[in-house]
Amino acid sequence: MALRFYNTLTQQAEIFSPLQDNVVRMYTCGPTVYNFVHIGNLRAFTSQDILRRWLRARGYRLDHVMNITDVDDKIIRNAAAAHKSIFDYTEGYTKAFLEDTATLRLERPERLVKATDHIDDMASAIHKLEERGYTYRSDGSVYYRIANFPEYGKLSHNDFSGIRAGARVDVDEYDKADARDFVLWKAQKEGEPGWETPLGPGRPGWHIECSVMAMKYLGETLDIHAGGVDLIFPHHENEIAQSEALTGKPFVRYWLHSEHLIVEGQKMSKSLGNFYTLRDLLEKGYSPEAVRYLLASVPYRKKLNFTFDGLKAAATSIERLRNYKIRLETSKFPEGSNEKMTERTRAAQNAFEAALDDDLNTAEALAAVFEYIRDTNTAMDSGEFRAGNVQEALDYLARFDAVFDVLCPSASAAGLSEAEIEALVAERSAAKKAKNFARADQIRSELAEKGVVLEDTKEGVRWKRL
Ligand code: AMP
Ligand code: ZN
C-alpha cells in the first residue's frame, strides 16, 4: 500500500506524492519564543519528527522550513515586564527550544527562520495585497478583507459567508465566533517596538509571517504544511487567504494537523497553567527517551492523555526493547538459520511499514514490533531461533529505531564510570551465587538502561558499552 495522509483540506486520506521529483517541501509552524515549550507543544513537534523520518525512510528528501515567532503581543508584554529588548528576551527561549528539541532527538528542519529577519519581505507582501484590493487601512494598521476571498473557510470547513463586512480583529488568536477581518500590519503603539517600512511604522501580524516565510523558501505551492489542530482556525485559514490572494495558486497540497495533548480532559496550555515542560519531567527522573516514546506512541490525529503512569509504561516498553536487543547481541543461539523465523521477521517488517504508511499509525507500528518480540523471545526459549536469524532481527530493530529513536540511552543516563560498572557486575555475581535472582536481574536491567550490556561466558561475566 502506498503512503497516505489525512488531509484536513479535503477531509480524506490521500495517497502522498510530492509535486517535484522526490523532494518534499514542508512547512511547520514553530514556537512563539516567550517561554519554555511544554510537552503539549512538544507533542506537535514530535509528530512532525516522525513524519520527517518516515518520509525519509520512504526514499524522499526533505526541504523543511520551521519558523520561530520572535515578535508578538505576548513577547512584547513579557519583554517589557522583564525590562529587556524583545531580542534579548527571545534569544534565551530560542536557545532553550533548540536544546529541548535536541534532547528529545527531534531532527532539525533544513531551515529554521526567524520572523524578525523577514520584516521587509512581509511588508512587501502586504503592499502587494493592498495593490490587489484585499486590504484596507484603519488607524495606521492594515487589515485583510475576508469578504474578498470567497474561499475563506475552506480549510476549517466553516461557512463565513454571512460575516459582517468591515468588523475587525486586532489580536492574532481568536476563535470561529470572532471570525473577522484580521490584521496584517499593526501600527506601532507608544512604547512598543516597531519597524520603519513603506507601510508606516509597525510590526507584522502573526499570520502573514508564515505565508511569507513558507513561500520565500519553498515556492508558491508547498507539499505539506503541518501544525497542531488549534492552528487550523484562524491561523492556517488566514495563511491560505493571504497566500492564495498573492499567487492565485493553491498554497498547500496536504494539510496535516496533530491533536492535542490533554491533562484531565483539558488541553495542556500555558494559559490554563496545567503544563509540564520537558525540563520538569527530566528533573523528576524520567528519561528523554521515555518522553519521546510516550509522545510518539499515540497516532498524531488522536488526543493523547498525559499521565505519569503512561510515562512509566513508556519507560518499561523501552526497557523491553533494549533487553531484547541485548539478548540478540549476547546470547549463543543454535547454529544455522530458521526459514520460518526469516519469514516472521519479514512479516513484522511489512506490518510496521503498512502501519506507518497508513497516516503514521504509530500505535499499530509499535504493536507489530512488540508482537514480534514476544514471538521471537518464545522461539529463542525453544531453540527455534538460530544464530543465522540474529542479523535480520537486528536490522528490523534498526529500522524501527530510525523512526522511533529510543534504543540508545541518553548521555545523561549513561554516565557510569568503569569502577561503578565493575562494582555492579560484582554485586550481580554475588547475588546470583546467593540465588537472589531478582536482584541479579534488576542489576542487569539497570545497566542496560545505562547502555551497558552483560555477557555471561564460561570465563565469567564480560561487559561492554552499547
Ligand atoms: P505555540 O508556541 O503556542 O504557537 O505552539 C506551538 C505548537 O504547539 C503549535 O503547533 C500548537 O498547535 C502546538 N500545541 C500547543 N498546545 C498543544 C497541546 N496541548 N497539545 C498538542 N499541541 C499543542
Ligand atoms: Zn504558522
Question: Can you characterise this structure?
Answer:
The protein has 466 residues and is α/β, with parallel strands linked by helices. The chain has 14 helices and 17 strands. The strands form 5 sheets. A 5-stranded parallel β-sheet has the order 5-4-3-11-12, with helices on both faces. Strands 6, 7, 8, 9 and 10 form a 5-stranded mixed β-sheet that branches. A 3-stranded mixed β-sheet has the order 14-13-15, with helices on one face. α8 (288-297) packs across α9 (308-330). It is elongated and about 85 Å long. Residues 29, 31-32, 40-41, 43-44, 227-228, 230-231, 260-261, 267-269 line the site of adenosine monophosphate. Zinc ion is lined by residues 29, 210, 235.
Short précis:
The protein has helices at residues 39-57, 73-81, 86-103, 119-131, 206-218, 232-247, 278-283, 288-297, 308-330, 339-357, 362-382, 390-404, 418-433, 437-449; strands at 4-7, 12-15, 23-28, 61-68, 111-114, 135-138, 141-144, 168-169, 181-187, 202-204, 222-228, 252-258, 261-263, 266-267, 304-305, 452-457, 460-465.
Strand arrangement in the largest pleated sheet: 5-4-3-11-12
Strand content: 15-25%
> Low-confidence parts lasting 5 or more residues at pLDDT below 50?
none
**Gyration radius, in Å:** 26 Å
Class from secondary-structure proportions: alpha/beta
